[in-house]
Design a protein that fits this description.
The complex is a heterodimer of chains A (264) and B (76). Chain A is an alpha+beta fold and 264 residues long. Helices cover 45% and strands 24% of the residues of chain A. Chain A folds into two domains: 116 residues; 98 residues, 2-Layer Sandwich (Alpha-Beta Plaits), CATH 3.30.70.600. In chain A, strands 1, 2, 3, 4 and 5 form a five-stranded antiparallel sheet that branches. Chain A has a four-stranded antiparallel sheet with strand order 7-8-6-9, covered by helices on one side. In chain B, 26% of the residues are buried. The chains are: A alpha+beta (264), B mainly alpha (76).
Chain lengths: 264, 76
């Protein structure tokens, strides 16, 4: 019995010479190719529907090992393509019956794709993750307050003073950490064309010390790349007790929707 | 400070070291959304839990992951 195949969609680009397509394999190890229409190229690969059909996908998404491998393969193709020129990434797990359906998509969404491509042309997405340990801020605030309030009274009163100082120090530390995140984002946003904030990743999980207090994506004009990277460094120097991590370059995942253009 | 105007990327571009959670943040929640013929409507799936479970799995490879997203049917 013949295998049933579908067409996995990675990205949309302006039409380009398919011989320049990087030799990367996509999800499930399938070779990548190009489908063209209307001056646009869709980067695709044929996939086995026994693994990438709707029901198998639903099941496989439950398997973290499969999900990681598939997400990395999807990203690997899009990253390679984005190094050739403007690229609009397509969300993971978008599969068509055949090439004709992909051509129909390029025709139907022609205006959207060109708007998105124009928006990301000459720009690159960078990620900035910021970490801080609120306890470190709380400890320093607490010792300051405790020594200010200390002296006189019995042990019970002293305990209450200390406890109150500790609680207010914790709140102050949270406020301090939030203020750091806000300042850093504002500074980076000023250099970027636009930005998008993700939820901070789970505290126990990243290898970095402390808690993630900012998880931002920034679309930066390629002419401002150095300025942006230096600003990340200088912000790290200006904000003591806070650690910044720059990631990228990313394909413009976070800015592929045309709605971002609406930002004033 | 001098700002170069040409297309230029700092040295980090040489080899991307990318955490799986950073990738999942992006490939699951962003990118242009088009309606495929075979579409897992992941917009309705609890993405935070998926990425969290994947990350936990990558750190504690031995830990069984039993609670699923299967109870949440995706899409209409």
């Amino acid at each position: 019995m013949a295998r049933e195949t579908g067409v996995w969609l990675y990205a949309i680009t302006p039409e380009f010479d398919a011989s320049r397509l990087p030799a990367v394999n996509g999800v499930g190890g399938a070779a990548v190719r190009v489908v063209e229409a209307e001056g646009l190229s869709a980067v695709v690969a044929s996939v086995d529907l026994a693994e990438f059909g709707e029901e198998p996908l639903r099941r496989n998404f439950e398997d973290p090992t499969w999900l990681e491998a598939t997400a990395r393969a999807h990203d690997g193709v899009i990253d390679a393509v984005s190094r050739l020129g403007p690229t609009v990434p397509v969300r993971l797990a978008t599969v068509y019956h055949d090439d004709d359906r992909v051509r129909a998509l390029l025709e139907d969404r022609y205006d959207d794709f060109w708007a998105a491509l124009r928006f990301v042309t000459g720009r690159t997405e960078w990620g900035v993750k910021v970490y801080a340990d609120p306890r470190a801020f709380a400890e320093s605030a607490w010792s300051t307050e405790a020594s200010a309030e200390g002296g006189g009274s019995g042990p019970g009163t002293t305990y209450l003073h200390l406890r109150r100082a500790q609680l207010s120090a914790q709140q102050a530390a949270e406020d301090t950490v939030a203020a750091h995140a806000k300042d850093i984002h504002a500074a980076l946003d000023r250099i970027a064309v636009t930005a998008r904030l993700y939820a901070p990743q789970h505290p126990a999980l990243p290898e970095e010390p402390g808690r993630m207090i900012l998880n931002g994506a920034y679309l930066v004009d390629d002419g401002c790349t150095d300025e942006f990277a230096s600003r990340v460094d200088s912000l790290a120097a200006e904000h003591r007790g806070v650690k910044l991590e720059l990631t990228g370059p990313w394909p413009a995942y976070s800015f592929a929707g045309a709605e971002e253009e609406a930002r004033p | 400070m001098t700002v170069e105007t040409g297309r230029h990327r700092p040295p980090v571009s040489a080899e991307r070291r990318v955490s799986v959670v950073d990738i999942l943040d992006r490939v699951l929640a962003t990118g242009v959304v088009v309606t495929g013929d075979v579409t897992l409507s992941i917009a309705d799936v609890d993405l935070v839990r998926i990425s969290l479970r994947t990350l936990i799995q990558s750190i504690r490879a031995s830990a069984p992951v039993s609670d699923g997203i299967s109870a949440r049917r995706a899409g209409p």
